[in-house]
Specification:
Layout (H helix, E strand, L loop, with lengths): L9 H4 L19 H13 L3 H30 L13 H24 L9 H8 L2 H12 L3 H14 L4 H11 L16 H14 L3 H25 L12 H23 L10 H15 L3 H14 L4 H11 L16 H28 L10 H6 L24 E4 L9 E5 L4 H11 L3 E2 L13 E7 H9 L5 H21 L7 E12 L11 E4 L4 E3 L4 E3 L8 E8 L6 E2 L2 E4 L7 E5 L6 E5 L6 E3 L2 E3 L1 E10 L7 H11 L4
Antiparallel strand pairs: 1-2, 2-13, 3-4, 4-5, 5-16, 6-14, 7-8, 9-13, 9-16, 10-15, 11-12, 11-14
Length: about 650
Amino acid sequence: MAAHLAIFVIALTLAALGSAQDILGSPDNPVTYDERYVDGMKAYTAQKWPECIILLRQALEEYGHVEETWRKCFRLCQGEERSVPGDYMRDQEVEFFHRVIQHSTCIRLCKESHLGVQPEAGIPTYVKEHMEELEGYNYLQMALYQEKKIREAMKACATYAYHNPHNIHVMTNLNFYSNQPEVTEEDKKPLFPQLYRDLYTQGHQLYFKQDWEKMVETFEAVLQEFYGALEECRLRCDGPLRYTRVLDFAQAMSKQYIAVKECHTNCIEKLGRFRNDRREDFFGSIFHFLQFGYYWLNRSMDAVQASATQVRLEPDSEVARRNAVFYRQQPGVTRKDFLPREDVLPHIKELEAEHAFLHVVDELSGHLLEVEGEGVVNAEGDQDDELLLEQDFVNFPIGSNKPKQEKKELIPVVVETPADHNGVERLVMDDLLSQQQCDQLIELASYGKEGDGYNRKSPHTQYEKFEGLHVLDAAKAAVEGEVQTPLSQLYVNASRSVKDFVARQFNLQQPLYFSYTHLVCRTAKENQAGRGDLSHPVHSDNCVLDEALGECLKKAPAYTWRDYSAILYLNGGDFEGGRFFFAHSPKDLSPQAFVDPKCGRMVGFSAGKENMHGVTAVTKGKRCAVALWFTLDPAHREASFEAAENLLSGAVV
């Protein structure tokens, strides 16, 4: 349930923060949380901590009561149907407004009966925003800390941090409070937990544990809780007018109605803000996990329906489309089978209808603005409102028919398979990344350390500078604000895509785990005179090469548990040399087959002596790639990769 709407429990839970006076309000005593909040902030600025604490607590409790009352009244009046006078039936416009006025009057009378007559002046915008984002708890925890009320400060801080997990400063405070001896586990629990969100995090963790049965069960529960949270969010959109400047009647109505519909379509994004990876549609991501879980449980038709649902929710998602192609190619799956789930269709159709409406509005407003623009100069005060209709209201991909710039469809292509290598497990694929994504990962690589992952700065050759960034270090840097979170999330997502492709293309019948994940760049040094070595000598990834014997021995210090390897290239035309090659055998280390790096190309292979490999010298420029090693042994899975994903998802590591 949304944070700012699940506040009906405030009257009970605020007891954990201290007592508060009875402020439920009456017709003679209207609640005014905004005034108390403003006064509380003044006391905060003046460092009058006791006064600040009292005022902020009262404001937060009053706001909770106002919100809960508004919700109850709105629900009560939704079903309010009275007869319409017969004369009205001839005038559709009058009939429409009769119902609108009837509905609004019902809500007004209901609110007044519980809260008293509200002041004509609206609540200041910044106060509303602070309340919706639970900002008051951030100020409250600081005031409580100043008064040395550590346990109460912990509770307030936990509440704000839970609903604002991307605020690094408050997370630092949270860690500080958590380590204080007087703080209990109960103090660390936030007020107003959101069940859909907690379940989502649990399901996310079960995904990495490969516990498909529990994961599917958890994400099905996420779905049911999410529907309730979505309804709460949409209810809140029908709040006070969003435009305070005086407009003509038609303009005021249209702007408010459009704003409400825009708010509806933004609800899914709002409800998914607790995750760091917001590139995926939150609603669609639920079905991404479900299709994957059902696939591994051999519930093929459930997986097909989940995949079809995700595609309907995220038609522009490369991953969703790729999965859809896979399922459509499975034996026994027909076009009739590839349909969205029936329980989701009403929500999809509602979203599609709203987006179709907003698309029409966008098209109409663009046409009208073109006409108005001929010789007309708008007053400065009119600019915000006139430009508002130029904005792209379609923030959700469902049902969007808005013309888009032409771009290349990024669908991974298999270039080489084991059949091209005499049955040896080798794979080459293209278009796993776009040029923009490659550039972003190269940017992230600039935060790497020289010699990272090795005991020396130049692990393979003195002629090149080697820099690396482990996946967990990238996640930590994002959490600490040193790098942009989307860059680190892209690193994680690209790595997971590579693993999935390797497992699928080699038709593995058991789970494949990460063993080590490294974003690396090799840069040629200026002095290349007399060079005759390789950028990376010929080797195998799970055995020790004994050139004298012409054998590769599976023993320490080799990483004998590594079963598969892959390299995802980020560039190719801006450096010289750096060609990947497979060697003939441990006895014959000469090149057998080359793979030329380029953005989005991936080479995958089994990690044994059958795939001895190396890299020719990088003689000019910088060569960057994501190097990945995988294992079939869960005992050697890369726990730091899971830790990186948890960090980026906001979960506790």
